[in-house]
Specification:
The chain is α/β, with parallel strands linked by helices and 288 residues long. It is built from ten helices and eight strands. It is globular, with a radius of gyration of 18 Å.
């Protein structure tokens, strides 16, 4: 089985619609794909309705968190989306995304970048607006060559000249809320240093003690020594090591299924979940 547990659609900052994403996942030879848009479950219904034969969908979200002044992302899988406390907290994060993006636009304008809110809103479409949409505007304007080039201290990187904070989960609360909703948590790209400051391993240990289920090991932003280090840390802390593409469509160069999760690890994730269950497409594999 080929299993990719981290992808994004137009419901947040990807360029594929949810229906296109599952079709592309099947075409890429995946057996299982997780749709994990930022702080939203808005793409799940469309993805489920379009699910092709032979592909299983894992519903999830990537939750925006902050601890000790450092941003981090928490992948939440197979939780009950109607659980009120978790739904309310996700809504607070989403509601803060528009004012945050507008603040970044204002800061860029103060840096003499001719970006407009109308341009960013057009790029975001109906999705949950975020920094990648602002970064795409900078690419359109020729300020930077790629979206990744915008995520630096010069522009939108954490603490950068045009960076603005937003409401974010406390990761310990995120773990508690996801567990209460029957879900499973995995710390996304925990040592992606090119994105900015990362939390020390002592914080990962505290998260593990609080009930974190896993850490994303195989990811485009982790080099081989980092993956080896994380694999050892996962073994030490009793965490599930996962792998995934963090696919955003044409917004990033990574391909669907470029990094994958071991079937045994996927099986353990599904065994731990009680809030929702993987959705097999017509004739698709039976969840572990």
């Amino acid at each position: 089985m080929r299993i990719d547990l981290h992808t994004h659609s137009t419901a947040s900052d990807g360029t594929d619609t949810p229906a296109e994403l599952v079709a592309n996942a099947a075409a890429a030879g995946l057996d299982v794909v997780a749709l994990t848009d930022h702080d939203t479950v808005g793409g799940h219904a469309e993805a489920t309705a379009a699910l092709p034969e032979g592909l299983t969908l894992v519903t999830g979200a990537e939750l925006s968190c902050r601890v000790d002044g450092i941003s981090l992302h928490m992948l939440a899988y197979l939780f009950d989306p109607s659980e009120p406390e978790l739904a309310r907290e996700r809504e607070l994060v989403r509601d803060d995304r528009v004012p945050r993006a507008q603040a970044m636009v204002r800061m860029l304008q103060e840096l003499d970048v001719p970006v407009t809110w109308e341009q960013v809103a057009r790029i975001a479409g109906g999705g949950s607006v975020g920094r990648p949409h602002v970064a795409t505007a900078l690419v359109e304007l020729g300020v930077v060559d790629t979206v990744s080039d915008a995520f630096t201290p010069a522009w939108l990187g954490n603490g950068g000249r045009a960076y603005a904070d937003k409401h974010e989960f406390d990761p310990f609360d995120a773990i508690r809320l996801v567990k209460a909703a029957g879900g499973v948590t995995v710390f996304a790209h925990p040592l992606a240093v090119k994105r900015g400051a990362v939390v020390p391993e002592s914080v990962i240990a505290r998260l593990a003690a609080a009930g974190l289920d896993g850490i994303e090991v195989d990811h485009m932003d982790h080099d081989e020594p980092t993956r080896a280090r994380l694999r050892g840390l996962a073994a030490e802390l009793g965490l599930l090591p996962t792998g995934s593409s963090d696919y955003h469509g044409s917004r990033k160069t990574v391909r669907l299924g470029e990094y994958t999760t071991d079937p045994e690890i996927y099986g353990e994730i599904t065994r731990r979940a009680t809030g929702a269950f993987p959705v097999p497409g017509a004739g698709g594999p039976v969840p572990a």
